[in-house]
């Protein structure tokens, strides 16, 4: 039985299992979603959007959809994956199940809690009705699949005029209690007018077992609100991640999503921005540093619908060994979106002969008074710069790492949480195989 | 003096009708509509083709029947009905002509209207013209001069008779019959085209040129061009097209194959100005062209195109850089107006070491048109030190049109260096203001800016063609080009 059949057939059991006292609306949504998924199935390489990424190697696994055996995970096991240098709210999920013991939630000035409670409690019914599955709907079959099975994930609701004092960390762990496991976390973030929040998201496999995560995050940013969202993707070589993030922005809001892809078997990021007002600023940043046979596919979309908005996109990639990098950046400027400024840049360095980069920076422009540009380069390290450093006593490996770090630094500089910046810097050093602080 | 503003220009662009939309009334020998094996055989018979050619066509037809019309391009149109087209139409002509005087005066008038009087060209521009009107070559000039150098330049139908060994060796090697839907169709039913062979070490002394025209209403034109440049030779080939205004959509599916052997260089320039349809988007030519060139060692192929006509353009002149140190170039200006749709670009396939490619694409959209650039730069794992530079700029005039870019970059070698940049803009108010401030009126300023925008490409056109190219830009964007 292939994975699609398995998913479709286990859906009924999943629905009947009940457990959750769900609103009937949510049931309808799920039913619709599973039907859509059944019609469309998993995307194949024949789909233009999946031309360079094949899910085939993943689909042959016999994934367990509802991991049962709960393995006890203590703080010690997960400590290294958290950023502990700062105070933060934490939402920790172990094999898709919320761990209240490890987490720090709040309901004081804002709601930082879990989706399951939001879906069942009448208090949140309005929010769920208004937001849940409104932008993820009908977008792609994998998001539909997630909707059908969505039970758990982060629910973050920031009311008007609130500056969340601490960053929020959302971490999904898989413990390897099952041999092959598929997780489908679902996050919903609503940022009210004039509010500000910073979120760090991470997926981590604690074992050597195979994991496939199909994650969907919906983010709603209201007038003049600011959100910084960081994604750390530094998982084991047996873990794959399909991450769909949808951002809907209202006027004068600023949303930034930064993706740091350092590890994993296959990572696919669908990042989509929809601008629903004027004077919006959208920022998309990313660094990919890959080795071995890792495969990272960054698919971004910025849909400019209203005048006077901006978008800035900057993706850097360093590809070693037999790794494959894919970048597809689509910018749509609709007819009404006059005075749009949209910039997109994608720079890649290939370190080894087996590495591949497939880039497709795409512009679709229907308005005339706009400034849109994209730049895409693929190249190598500057030999003379390497020689310069070597001639001054810096070993080749370190010299190389320094140059690569400098290359990636444009994106690192944009991180607004200092402790996170240090962490990312360390991760970069580790991935470049050197022991440098880069704080020279 | 009344001020000429961008709005005026826009209005003028919209109302500007196709100037070359006339129809020459010549008796034509025409096949009934429809396509089946018999038609393919009949076309082949008509041309007195040897058996191997007939079989080649039938094979292609078989492949075509199995294929489906591609739909990936960013264009919308009513699909041509392949059974409603007549696949062969030749002006009824008396036997081969020795001089221009014998050519049908109606035909000559047509050329005169186009501003390409053969006589004048003969005298002034040193261009040998192999004129193709609706499928059959009518006049071939300068043959003698070329003969002395050993250059073969003749209609492909004659070449099949006279140089079967060359045709057999090269035809369909670059664009195989299985390549795509329209290439297969062309292979099955192509009526004529040009064949050019430059022997070893010969530099062709003049620009070779062919004018294609679709003349008879309701006939599709399926041209087949094959240019072979032997080792160390050089040729510059020009192709220009204008078509009369017809209401029903006309289909054009040409195939062009270029082969540049070691150290050879081919420069292929196109000016395309087929009937784009009227203001409402009614009528116009469907232009689905497959153009591809192969570069052996140290060879160079350069495509230059000015695309101003056709309702639908779908065209990707490509270079396969097979040999080491080979060079591919692509320079393009595509202008779309009213309801025109263009999806054009190039493919640069780097296979050899030290291969270089340059892509400069300029799109200008006005009215309600859609202009797309679609390109591929592919570096194979064994292509060391490949270098690519791509630039695609779009200029939008008015808020009803669209500009799109779909660049694909696939790199599998670490020594490759690839740069791609694209910009989209309109004629800036500050740019206009700057010009006005210095005493240049708005009309002149727009002309200046559009000219400057396309200059990189216009500069690449051969002298003889640059004049015509400017004329065509004038038609498409009159008022904006000085």
Distance, first to last CA of chain B: 18 Å
By secondary-structure content and strand pairing, the structural class of chain A works out as alpha/beta
Q: How many discrete domains of chain A? A: 2
Broad structural category of chain B: alpha/beta
Cα-based radius of gyration of chain B, to the nearest Å: 22 Å
Number of strands of chain A: 20
Beta-strand segment tally of chain B: 24
Average pLDDT reading of chain B: 77
> Over all CA atoms, what is the radius of gyration of chain A?
21 Å
Strand order of the largest sheet of chain B: 4-3-7-9-12-14-17-20-22-24
Please describe the topology of this protein:
The complex is a heterodimer of chains A (440) and B (482).
Chain A: H1 3-16, H2 24-40, H3 56-59, H4 75-78, E1 89-94, E2 97-98, E3 111-114, H5 115-120, H6 125-131, H7 141-149, E4 154-158, E5 168-174, E6 180-183, E7 186-191, E8 196-205, E9 210-221, E10 226-234, E11 239-249, E12 254-263, E13 266-275, E14 281-290, E15 295-304, E16 310-319, E17 324-333, E18 341-350, E19 356-365, E20 371-379, H8 383-391, H9 396-412, H10 418-431
Parallel strand pairs in A: 1-5, 4-7, 5-8, 6-9, 7-9, 8-10, 9-11, 10-12, 11-13, 12-14, 13-15, 14-16, 15-17, 16-18, 17-19, 18-20
Antiparallel strand pairs in A: 1-2, 3-4
Chain B: H1 6-15, E1 28-30, H2 37-46, H3 51-66, E2 89-91, H4 105-114, H5 118-125, E3 128-133, E4 136-140, H6 143-149, E5 152-155, H7 156-162, H8 164-170, H9 181-189, E6 192-198, E7 208-213, E8 223-229, E9 234-242, E10 250-252, E11 255-260, E12 265-273, E13 285-295, E14 300-307, E15 312-315, E16 318-321, E17 327-336, E18 341-344, E19 347-350, E20 356-365, E21 370-379, E22 387-396, E23 402-411, E24 417-425, H10 429-437, H11 442-458, H12 463-476
Parallel strand pairs in B: 3-7, 6-8, 7-9, 8-11, 9-12, 10-13, 11-13, 12-14, 13-15, 13-16, 14-17, 15-18, 16-19, 17-20, 18-21, 19-21, 20-22, 21-23, 22-24
Antiparallel strand pairs in B: 1-2, 3-4, 5-6
Helix pairs in contact in B: 2-3, 3-9, 7-8, 10-11
